[in-house]
Automatic annotation (TrEMBL):
Keyword entries, A-Z: Acyltransferase, Cell membrane, Lipoprotein, Membrane, Transferase, Transmembrane, Transmembrane helix
Keyword Metal-binding among UniProt keywords: no
The name this protein goes by in its record: Apolipoprotein N-acyltransferase
Organism: Rhizobium phaseoli
Major subcellular location class: membrane
Annotated CN hydrolase domain residues: 246-496
GO biological process, one term: lipoprotein biosynthetic process
Keyword Membrane part of the UniProt annotation: yes
Membrane topology, from the record: Multi-pass membrane protein
Transmembrane intervals: 9-30, 36-55, 67-89, 101-124, 136-157, 177-198, 210-229
Function recorded in the entry: Catalyzes the phospholipid dependent N-acylation of the N-terminal cysteine of apolipoprotein, the last step in lipoprotein maturation.
Uppermost EC category: transferase
GO MF annotation, one: N-acyltransferase activity
Amino acid sequence: MERLADRVILVWGVKRSLLAIAAGAFAVLALPPFGFFAAMFLSFTLLVWLIDGAAASPDSGLVGRLWPAFATGWLFGFGYFVAGLWWLGHALLVDQEEFAWALPLAILGLPACLAIFYGLAAALARIFWSDGMGRIAALAAGFGLMEWLRSVILTGFPWNAIGYGMMPVPLMMQSAHVIGVMGVTALAVFIFSAPALAGTRQGARTGIALAALLFAAHLGYGAYVLYLAPRPEALPEDKRQVVRLVQPDIDQAAKMDNDADRNAIFETHLKLSAEAPKNGGRRPDIIVWPETSIPFILTDNQDALKRIADTLDDNQILIAGAVRAEEMGPGTPTRYYNSIYVIDGRGQIIAASDKVHLVPFGEYLPFEDLLTEFGIQNVVEMPGGFSAAASRHLLALPGGLNLYPLICYEIIFPDEMTGDIKDANAILNITNDAWFGATPGPYQHFQQARVRAVETGLPLIRDANSGISAIVNAHGEIITGLGLEETGFIDATHDRFGGEAGTTFPLQTHFWLTEALLILIALVSRRGFISGLN
């Protein structure tokens, strides 16, 4: 192990750069659809050794001393994000005549920008670097901080935070309910980096023992929650809501084609909604359609509302994704919102919610006045793009069920699980991942949605045009669902639909306490107190 560590520490030039990129790319095997979390042990062990060897001239200034570590972290991040996000280019190929030119920006440009955060994490860790266990604590704190910043800066994009690699199955998700995905990220980097101590000896016994203890606690807490902790008493069968998820698997190119038969798309959703329950089950109380499933402005189409009323029974509810238009008056452009409608059995819209967190370059164009001069436009065709809602509010359904609505990638943001969510009975997430085809993207999106359920202690109702649609309980376990690119529907009940609201820990507070503990370990180790134990 020491010989291998020495070789990695001393590697230089192009070989060093390629090794850093390869280490980052290999870590992606821990993410869906693979879930091989052990891959990150190798990746972060290599990263620690590479930072060990990231030396600068002694007479360099602060930036010069930190630059080699930054470059190493950036290369690692570039490999990680290219390997983990290449599928974003698939969305540009839906209308390739218009957007194929932007493929290099999606596949290489975005990863290059996101990798800056990992470069900063490595540089920050280098400030507190020491020969012993403290350096992996510093690296863990650096990654925790930078992953959090990645979730908030420039509207944020926390996709594939390192912590998800530590949570491939529900047994390994439960810690997120206590410290959140960002807290899991920080501790995961510490655990994944621990084998590096065996290659350099100093701090090895204490560091590896602490990492093993943390990993055991991670698994032990998951086992307690899933198998030993008392669960709320189940609701009687007649008080459980039956939810139908409709997954039509409409091709994205057809949804965008102005010449397509939009009525046929609409009728496909209606047909799946009207199907009799399978195996003699109860008819659904709530029917859910995916994001932008209604292919026209619903409020301008009374015939469509009548068709919905004809399809639904009097006491059934339809929840559907649609584009909502808001007229602003003479001379003012119409505003469009990516919305959710709740429609009753009489065809009346009884509730609605608009998307708050829009996708840059997908649903709106940042710096629009400047970029339109260069011919750059939104991927989604909409005059002026979508408008963002000022706030999010619960969808209050008849019967007392309160749903916390999240449209598409809004569910990847842990910090947005706030406000009214304390009064929610379940999270509702509708999405359209058909943009990304049969790539890792939909699997990664689904995993992040499951972790939100664990963090908040709420079940999840998730409906996706092309999959993955599922009912997930408050522990991230899949009750039932439809796989990627399946067409059909699924009916399900859950104890918590109509039951009590979820309970949440103060995740942000616990995350910062985790960060403080790691920094304390780094500082104490740097002063030699911990390394002296070895």
